[in-house]
């Protein structure tokens, strides 16, 4: 037990608020403090998420190609042929572009992979050749044709294309432009050549959201509500909560980045029968944390706040008591029904209670919920999670009206024992269905009732997109909730998008649900602390360069200037990085990021929890991505990048080498990766992209001489762009960057 009145009274102020700024570490930057150059880490910079590096949708390669090929089809086919392909009643043709799977096998970047479908509709095997002829003869008339270097028909009938280096240069400059003091893009700027201006097309005026997505048009900015975390009061957060927390925070960041107005809500379980069980037991046993409520003569003014573990133990004890004490079980129902009535109501004249809950029960409920929040918020802070609590009790006053309206609509049946139920399938006999119970015979409400009220309230308050994140065991429940809201005409899915994002369980090495030795769920806070300790073991820090860093320097140190920089850095190294060795926050960033990243790569499926896999330097892990990030930081610090005063607008970018081109091509996919993630709500898409980018950078880094090369400035800008993409992507996943590993 702990005593802390100030925290206890102000717990609602501890609730974390949404964050609107992205922290971007500029680890390569330096500051001049003396006449002699000293290589020091730059202070973290912030920028508003609305000011992205560039407009995502307007830089989509797939969207550019669609506009280009749409024009090619129009200039190649007659009106009758166009109708036969694009307005076919059975098969509505839509060009599908895909990335060429292997650059080692193919010398192309993209493929129109369903060209054969159009050929089949026209019964014309030479359609691909005709499109190429049109492209070559009328290139100047085709929008965005300058991004295509060449076209070719593959043996399988696909139309392959390779983008120009000039197009890739525009992508590179997008990411490094903000390094200089240059103005934003304008229509006359060379880099605006591949910008889809205004994003308005003649044929998209009357399209609904699904049709817009199918045509790869951008999703219109929406007012979004993301329901995640949502812990139950009087229970310690366990490892399963990590999944909802990591996914919810990442989804919020991604949608905010894409321009949506996002509200983060934790639909905490503060209103159900389980709380009635705990409160009934606590009141009857005169639990310490309720002494100031139950005993007016209590000398201490400071309430005793139970720890999360004590709350969980209290719940277990109370729950076990219901299995052996039938009379106690009945009293728990009364207790739950009491606090569900809301605050006590008193007569203004005589001060007598005229309604609401029993005062002692209600105050005990408040105390239990506030004590629970203290534990939740400590974990949320460790994980850098920002969410506002709006628990089930928020909808208390709406529940009678919701039930009355459903009753008037004829949806509600009353069972023999007095429960109010809804049978969803009107075409089947009620005897063959399991109904949705919305009110018990004693008047108590259920989870379904508050969830139905929640979706109604959210839609009525202007939310155009509602996302609920829970484990997959609740998938059926939310489909029922959404259907009831639709049948009641509260939810129009043509106007409001609703998604239930489900996830599988976390398993141990034995294949069973991850738990402690005694079979109970592992406390999330214990998992987080263990992850921090493991990250200390997994990373290798030293006061001087690591062996790999020294090898990197040796390979590049071919002139006096580079050796001087090396000496300068090593002389200042202890002062700059010695504090990292003892910085708990450094390892917390690594450990928390590793857990969240690994979880996001397995969004839909259960996975086996393994620290060795989570903290591995190999494979698709945050450690591997951070290694790439810190490798770039070391390189840019070594060259004293900021003091070079490079200007990308004055740099002549020469023809790319194979490794450079492969790396920048992956950069060019960023816009489409973000659009894909926005539509699919799968942050794992970003994980895969960052992994590809890191792999390509390492290949470039190992093969190319950077410092001291003839094209040093160009290569440094490539490194800078790579790091900025890594930094942006990691932030969207909820992973903080670090100075060194």
TrEMBL record:
Question: Which keywords has UniProt assigned to this entry?
Answer: Aminoacyl-tRNA synthetase, ATP-binding, Ligase, Nucleotide-binding, Protein biosynthesis
Q: Which Gene3D superfamilies match?
A: HUPs (3.40.50.620), Isoleucyl-tRNA Synthetase, Domain 1 (1.10.730.10)
Q: Which reaction does it catalyse?
A: tRNA(Arg) + L-arginine + ATP = L-arginyl-tRNA(Arg) + AMP + diphosphate
What name does the UniProt record give this protein?
A: arginine--tRNA ligase
Homology family? Belongs to the class-I aminoacyl-tRNA synthetase family.
Entry EC number(s): 6.1.1.19
Say yes or no: keyword Lipid metabolism present.
Answer: no
- UniProt xrefs under InterPro entries: aa-tRNA-synth_I_CS, Arg-tRNA-ligase, ArgRS_core, DALR_anticod-bd, Rossmann-like_a/b/a_fold, tRNAsynth_Ia_anticodon-bd
Per the UniProt entry, what are the Gene Ontology biological process annotations, in alphabetical order? arginyl-tRNA aminoacylation
What single Pfam family name could you report for this chain, choosing any that match? DALR_1
């Amino acid at each position: 037990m702990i005593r802390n009145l100030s925290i206890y009274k102000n717990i609602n102020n501890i609730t974390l608020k949404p964050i609107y700024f992205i922290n971007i570490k500029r680890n390569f930057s330096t500051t001049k403090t003396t006449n002699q150059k000293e290589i020091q880490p730059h202070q973290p910079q912030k920028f508003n998420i609305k000011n992205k590096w560039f407009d995502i949708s307007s830089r989509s390669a797939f969207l550019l190609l669609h506009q280009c090929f749409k024009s090619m089809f129009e200039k190649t086919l007659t009106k009758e042929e166009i109708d036969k392909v694009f307005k076919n009643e059975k098969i509505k043709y839509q060009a599908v572009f895909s990335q060429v799977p292997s650059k080692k096998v193919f010398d192309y970047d993209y493929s129109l992979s369903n060209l054969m479908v159009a050929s089949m509709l026209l019964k014309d095997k030479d359609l691909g050749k005709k499109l190429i002829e049109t492209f070559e003869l009328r290139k100047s008339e085709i929008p965005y044709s300058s991004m295509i270097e060449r076209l070719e028909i593959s043996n399988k009938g696909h139309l392959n294309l390779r983008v120009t280096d000039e197009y890739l240069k525009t992508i590179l400059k997008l990411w490094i432009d903000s390094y200089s003091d240059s103005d934003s893009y304008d229509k006359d700027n060379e880099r605006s050549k591949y910008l889809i201006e205004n994003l308005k097309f003649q044929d998209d005026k009357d399209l609904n959201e699904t049709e817009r997505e199918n045509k790869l048009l951008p999703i219109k900015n929406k007012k979004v509500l993301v329901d995640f975390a949502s812990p139950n009061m009087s229970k310690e957060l366990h490892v399963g909560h990590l999944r909802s927390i990591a996914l919810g925070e990442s989804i919020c960041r991604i949608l905010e980045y894409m321009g949506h107005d996002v509200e983060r809500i934790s639909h905490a379980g503060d209103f159900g029968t389980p709380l009635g069980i705990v409160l009934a037991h606590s009141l009857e046993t005169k639990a310490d944390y309720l002494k100031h409520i139950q005993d007016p003569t209590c000398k201490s003014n400071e309430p005793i706040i139970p720890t999360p573990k004590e709350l969980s133990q209290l719940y277990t004890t109370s729950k076990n008591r219901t299995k052996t004490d039938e009379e106690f079980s009945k009293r728990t129902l009364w207790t739950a029904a009491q606090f569900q009535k809301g605050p006590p109501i008193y007569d203004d004249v005589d001060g007598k209670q005229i309604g609401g809950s029993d005062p002692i029960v209600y105050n005990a409920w408040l105390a239990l919920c506030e004590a629970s929040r203290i534990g939740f918020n400590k974990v949320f802070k460790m994980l850098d999670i920002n969410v506002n609590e709006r628990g089930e009790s928020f909808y208390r006053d709406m529940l009678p009206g919701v039930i009355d309206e459903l009753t008037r609509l004829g949806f509600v049946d009353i069972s023999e024992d007095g429960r109010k139920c809804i049978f969803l399938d009107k075409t089947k006999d009620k005897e063959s269905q399991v109904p949705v119970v919305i009110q018990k015979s004693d008047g108590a409400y259920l989870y379904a009732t508050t969830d139905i009220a929640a979706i109604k309230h959210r839609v009525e308050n202007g939310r155009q997109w509602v996302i609920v994140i829970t484990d997959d065991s609740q998938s059926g429940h939310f489909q029922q909730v959404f259907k009831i809201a639709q049948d009641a005409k509260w939810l129009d899915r043509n106007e409001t998008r609703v998604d239930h994002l489900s996830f599988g369980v976390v398993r141990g090495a034995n294949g069973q649900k991850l738990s402690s030795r005694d079979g109970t769920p592992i406390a999330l806070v214990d998992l987080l602390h263990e992850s921090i300790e493991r990250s200390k073991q997994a990373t290798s820090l030293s006061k001087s360069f690591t062996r790999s860093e020294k090898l990197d320097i040796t390979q590049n140190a071919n002139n006096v200037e580079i050796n001087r920089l090396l000496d300068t850095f090593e002389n200042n190294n202890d002062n700059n990085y010695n504090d990292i060795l003892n910085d708990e926050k450094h390892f917390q960033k690594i450990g928390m990021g590793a857990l969240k990243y690994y979880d996001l790569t397995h969004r839909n499926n259960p996975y086996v929890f393994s620290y060795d896999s989570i903290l591995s330097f190999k494979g698709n892990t945050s450690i591997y991505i951070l290694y790439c990030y810190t490798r770039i930081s070391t390189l840019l610090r070594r060259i004293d990048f900021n003091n070079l005063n490079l200007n990308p607008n004055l740099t002549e970018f020469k023809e790319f080498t194979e490794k450079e081109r492969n790396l920048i091509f992956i950069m060019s996919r960023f816009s489409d990766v973000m659009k894909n993630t926005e539509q699919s709500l799968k942050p794992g898409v970003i994980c895969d992209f960052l992994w590809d980018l890191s792999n390509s950078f390492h290949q470039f880094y190992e093969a190319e001489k950077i410092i001291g090369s003839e094209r040093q400035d160009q290569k440094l800008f490539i490194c800078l762009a790579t790091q900025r993409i890594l930094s942006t992507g990691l932030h969207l996943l909820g992973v903080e960057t670090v100075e060194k590993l």
